[in-house]
## 1
Amino acid sequence: MKILVTVKEVAEAADDFEIDGTDIGEQYLEYDLNEWDDYAVEAAVQLSEAYDDVETVSVTIGPERSEETIRMALAKGVDRAIRVWDDDVAAADLDVAAKTRLLSAVVAEEEPDLVLSGVQAADDGFGATGVSLADEIGFDWAAVVNHLDTDDDLSTAHVHRELEGGIEELTDVDLPAVLTIQTGLNEPRYASLRGIRQAQSKEIAEFGLGDLGLDADAVASPIERTAMYEPETESDATYFDGSADEQAAQLADVLRTKGVVSE
Amino acid sequence: MSDVLAVADHRRGELRDVSFEIVRAGRELAADLGGDLHVAVIAGDVDGFADRLSLEGVDTVHTVDAGEEFNHDLYAGATAALFEELAPTALLMPNSVNGLDYAPAVANRLDLPLVADAVGLSYDDGLEATREMYGSKVATTVEVSEEPVAVTVRGGEWPAVEDAADVAVEPFDYEFDEATSGARVQGFEEVGAGDVDIADAEFLVSVGRGIEEEENLELIEELVEATGATLSSSRPIVDNGWLPKNRQVGQSGKQVTPDVYLAIGISGAVQHVAGMKGAETIIAINTDPNAPIFDIADYGIVGDLFDVVPALTEQFE
Ligand SMILES: Cc1cc2nc3c(=O)[nH]c(=O)nc-3n(C[C@H](O)[C@H](O)[C@H](O)COP(=O)(O)OP(=O)(O)OC[C@H]3O[C@@H](n4cnc5c(N)ncnc54)[C@H](O)[C@@H]3O)c2cc1C
């Protein structure tokens, strides 16, 4: 059995940042493994530990910089990694359809039995790639999975989908399938020193569009970001200034006035 | 014609709030486009739902009488079939958990560009949508140069349409056999019951990832003790196993309406805010002056919780 895990390097904005054109200035962005993908990686590695003959492969669409993030997934136990990138991909503003085309070409190449993907990416928050991919490659799927059991013969996944308001849907999904993984599904491990060392020698295969049998049309997107701005605040909060003690004293007054704390 | 098709959301016999909000989003967009608004409702008591969805500004409600509850193969198949019949310019689906489970498949199947989690929509020579990025720290506009287009709509962003009207209801035939579906819903389970119901609390002290380590929760517990508050949290605290699920505030946790909600080291992600924006007074302590929680706060402290929280506890000892 082969498990493909989608791993995205996401950008996080610093506390103080400036917008440059239609994005946050590069100097204010820090990159990290997408939180949701961390749980997907852990799920894949746990399955590979629980069953014989499971190979785990991660796939990332991202520039060379993202190899740092990919090494993190390798250090946690993913067997090998694929990185998709070239000049055409770099120049494109990838929408869900473009990502679906790239990932489905990788699926055609790797023929996995299970694809695990995070529910959403923390930076652009589309939350759509996993299910779009499933539809494209003809796999079954489940979105927002926060509990996963598999049959011994790995024919079916018994999942919980976390709905709103503390309700979970219990669903059986036939494999091959794509599952989009919600945080809390497991406890993602820290990479051990040994894992980090081993990750250095694991393979990261690089694919450009040509290697995947695609051309620049595959990453053309009809969706264009035209502006970015800091949202206007809807409320005007009263801020407490001064030292921590002074701030605390003002806040304490508010709590007393509101009558939620006596004394 | 430049019509809009919007799909309603329901669970266990009840239309969800987003169904009435998506009608508003659809109505406004249909007005921009100069076309009709079609609303689809799939599975369950579709006639009852159609009655409730007969709302001002809706031109036709299409009912798909198949299955009892949400199944993504049913929703994706029926939505795509109805789309092909009506050929609208825009297809709106909710960005609910069920929306996350079928909308991307519909867009892929119909080869439509997908704008996910829109918080604003307009049309002038092409669709323009507003979205947020980087954990709601910034807003963006995106333009879509192709038509038709699929959009998922964030809940809570458009006011619900409430005014009933007399709207034509048209049944839409769609054959579906759940047994042949690769994903079969087995039932539901409620989680998060426990000793404390944070929904009853008047004063919630809520802690987020800013607390960094489990040991540091002690700081918050001392404040809770000194003030007689009830302790709640954002999701990462529960994901880490530091507090039980019944303490989680938010979309997938509990909805709370205390007199005072004190958010400590919580950024204010949309799924968290969904659970606490009904608090009468919101107070936030956060080191990041751009944290979205300040947008909805009544009182704010830009500061380090490790300094402010002990000082606050001292005020009550
Ligand atoms: C389908 C779905 C459902 C979800 N349901 C929920 C839900 O029910 N509830 C929920 O909460 N989330 C939910 N989430 C997750 C949500 O998107 C966020 O990831 C989560 O709310 C973030 O929690 P946080 O604010 O504690 O952490 P972060 O976003 O990491 O924020 C931590 C904050 O602490 C501040 N901070 C750091 N250090 C300090 C310090 N020393 N002093 C003061 N401040 C500090 C930082 O500036 C930051 O603003 C859901 C997500 C999805 C996709």
## 2
Amino acid sequence: MDLATLLQILDSTVRLGTPLLLACLAGLFSERAGIFDIGLEGKMLMAAFFSGAVAAVTGSVWLGLTAGVLSSLLLSAIHGAASITFRGNQLISGVAINFLASGLTVLIGQKWFQLGGRTPSLTGNGRFGPITLPFAESLREVPVIGPVYYELISGHTILVYVALAAVPLSWWLLYRTRFGLRLRAVGENPAAVDTAGISVLRLRYTAVMICGLLTGLAGAYLATGLSAGFVKEMTAGRGYIALAALIFAKWRPVPALGATMLFGLLEAIANRYQNIDLGGVVLPVQFMQALPYILTVVILAGFIGKATPPRAGGAAYVKER
Amino acid sequence: MTKMPRWADVALIPLLNLVIAFAISGLVILAIGENPWTALKIMVSGALGSSYGWGFTLYYATSFIFTGLAVAVANHAGLFNIGGEGQATLGGLGVAMVCLALPWPHWSLALLAASLGAAAFGAAWAAIPAWLQAKRGSHIVITTIMFNFIAFSLLNYLLVNVLRPVGSMDPASARFPEGAALPTLNDMAAGLGFVWGRNTPANVSLFLALLCCLGVWAIIWKTRLGYQIRAFGKSEPAAVYAGISPVRITMYAMLISGGLAGMMAVNNVMGEAERLVLNAVEGAGFIGIAVALMGRSHPFGVLLASLLFGFLYQGGGELALWTTIPRELITVIQALVILFTGALDNMVRAPVERLFAGRGAR
């Protein structure tokens, strides 16, 4: 494989890994605070639709992004109400949110655009354009470093850089601030946090809303960065892959970057090569597509390291009376 | 706290949840510029107004009974089986292998063998997540989701590379032999001398589904295993203290659950398509979640909820045919039903409980 091919694959790895990374960090905040969220898929889909639709109508990608994030925040609020205030089953609430998004996006899309649930193609200011980093053009001719800088590091949309910046930011927020300490504590032992006089409910709502913000960005990136417009069911299981990556990363931000980029790489390879010939053994494309899920099951089973979720995850906090 | 009367818990609360879900669905229809009342009329006449409509409604309901029972049995053991979709997909593989293996002499033999094949494959697909939960502590919800995707990829591979007949471009298996064709309800009605539900896919597996309802009721409430499943679901520590093995109960509950989900394939793969196609399950595995929640995990409740969702499915199809409302309206209604009966149950329950408590005090 030559450098150009390798760079192309790595370039699409970053592109395909970005929505996973944003969604994975979203799940990280929520689950670290003790709220499981299998509704990542739905929130991403909703955000993808509203960002694509509003960007198509107004011609402004920024208005689209805002609309996408708002719609995702709204679904987060529903999830918060169900799982924090009304102490409902978090998993069931997540399932409901996935279906809600899957149905509403087509219903509203059909009503607005009559295109069978898709939005018109976005052009110009309607989508995020590539950003050329400083000196990319002039460095282009330098061997090895030049192409790597020009092809791989430069030339992505702003949301890619936001996603990458979100990794150290999340790490700092979780491990170096008081808020982060409390957030992690509320996912491990909410009663202790409550005893210290800190509101469990408010902390959990905050975490769920951060999750909504990040999934909103992930969805907006899908519709306005990665592609030019919304297509029915365009998240295609990415929310679940992000969950898988979260388990892979054992609920930590920096490994989340590694895990999502690994899954991005698998997707990039599966897209590029149909069947992979490993000297006699042919890996079918379906196997490559299933690989992230298989790896997750293997990790969950504790065959490679142990993945222990936050201890208070999945259970609503009931204050003792 | 004063307890609510049983009828309120079993009937009133689910009914209220349902009314709210439908009211919001009505608002959604209004918001996309259609008349909810007209929509309802089209749905009712399209799904229940003719034997043709009923034929489809019952066909869908049959599938939902199987997947609903599957989710319900797991619920009793405190396990949330979200993998019905994958288990039913594998069930389809089981049915196809049985049907294609022999030139079946009579449908009843084929039905018996195919049911066993479907249940075995579905149960096997549920057994892995069950074992991983019981022995290795992996969360069953996450593993069953992963297994849905793995099942889809596996079937895709098998249909494209293994089961596809030579010369065919379709990712689908060969047609099943004549002898494996199940009689439709239309055939059975004709046998009794009247015309009912012509050109509809409702078939004899409806009766198999009803038998399964009865069987699940008997297992859960009339056997020692059922008692252990319920005890385990109510309180795992208490069950362990009483000498119930968590590994054993998790395995049995998930095997039954996966087997039931797999048996759905008898209806859609054997009864309707008569060959195995990609995505034959069409989301019925997920509808099972709504059905089990609405039916309070009781077989009779599951039966009623399946009929409701069968009506929604067929009515929704008619709606898409005659109005500009897309079929996806059903997905929205399904989401609202799951949301209100499953996750926001306390929102409705708390005020009703207060109401009854107030009455009791007076």
## 3
Amino acid sequence: MTTMSESTTPPLAELVRQVRKTREYKRLTDAIPYTRFMGIGVENLAGEMLCRMAFNPRNIGNSLIPALHGGTLGALLESAAVFELLLQTNTERVPKVISLTVDFLRSGKPQDTFAKAFITRQGRRVANVRVDAWQDDRTRPIASAHALFLLSEQ
Amino acid sequence: MSDDFTLPEDKAERMERCAIFYTDVVPHNHALGLRLVDVVAAEATVELPYAENLVGNPETGVIAGGAVTTLIDATCGTAVFLKLGRFAPLVTLDLRIDYLRPARPGIVLTCVAECYRLTRQVAFVRALVHQGDPGHPVASAQGTFMRTEE
């Protein structure tokens, strides 16, 4: 066991183990500066673990329409895949993305956006993940991605 | 053919015109601190300064992939405007990013994007992200963009 002096925050691996049990997802998403900055959180909605990116005016890419920046949708899709791997597998380190392919299907309106990741294959070292993002209607996704991650060996 | 959206020939003026996409006109580019540092022909160079709030792995301090995706998307869009020689409504159709090596914490990320093919409706762009040495890129990317005007 390692101890961190002058801090009550447990090391990430310990935090991940705790959150898998307690489902206090905010403790984990708040421990990662970028997801906190982006307003990306994990929620249990109707028994399903989903990612939500809360709308924030600074996530706008096109002020005229207005529409969310494509990069923020990429960020939500990738974050959803990372949290799915951290919370649904036994990975204790943040998985490293090897490649990410995003299809932009519809423009993102200035409102909350949801994402759901599906692990399509998990090997010893590599995981393949598919992710969809939507707003009002889950059957009409606004973006989807497939990503490869390197899982660090424990 | 001349209108308010045509990019001037002069390089400094082109830079100035394109730089507006890194200010309040595109709030998210501004929020990440992206800055346009060069334009050459159909090639744009944009920097993403390192910032604590963009860290994706608190154990290593490595910047989040999402911030790199935004950097690439923005730089590629600017490269298309340069190739077109004017501003036109664009949407990203797809973006593929390969992470070639881990980004080092604390160091600015530089994206260089080139629009290498433009058709009447679709623009094809490739990009590299590096941390000072373009010969040792952190990421390589390829994207397609759709022109949405008539």
## 4
Amino acid sequence: MRLAWFFLVLAIATEIAGLTALKAAGAYVGHAVMYGSIALSYVFLARAVKTIPVGVAYAIWEGSGVALITLVSVLVFDHVLTGREMLGLSMAVAGILLVNAGKVQDEEGER
Amino acid sequence: MSMSSFSFAFAVLAGIFDVAANLASTKSNGFSHRGWGAISIVLVLAAFALLAEAVKGMELAIAYAVLGATGIFGTAISGRLLFGQRLKPVGWIGLCLVFGAVLVLHTA
């Protein structure tokens, strides 16, 4: 199970790297890098959803993707957070925690 | 069909491709079925290409919200129907919050 979470984190990290590259580099290079890292991200996601329910994994992938991209724009691109963005970030964190709490554990153990 | 509903259809289609990519990813059993793994990657790249097509005629924020809603809820519902992966009510509240976050952050 722990390994699956490690792969989910890798999937999110590669997604963020791709989107950051898209923002930092120009049109063509940025797009090429983004498609490459999205593909890589799905290789990791496939490992993660071996044990994590796919609905949970995808919601976490999508939610932390958008939240972390906002943080990257603060840290790398000197963006200042608006109240709305702070609200969005808190919603993402709360939502991910609830989705995770809502998983129905497989009584038989890992499949 | 008007230009904007055409773009909207592209955004919905992008979401559907995204859901299909997630299902193929699950079917690949951690890439041990390479065919399903490859299909999953092709589908997700197609989803992004469709999103790029959608934003030519509509705002990125709206397109992303449509993609997010289709992707997040579509994946959870199909995961339950196809793989029997159930979610407690609190998990569905969480899904709504994540979708809300996507909406808030993309329109911020």
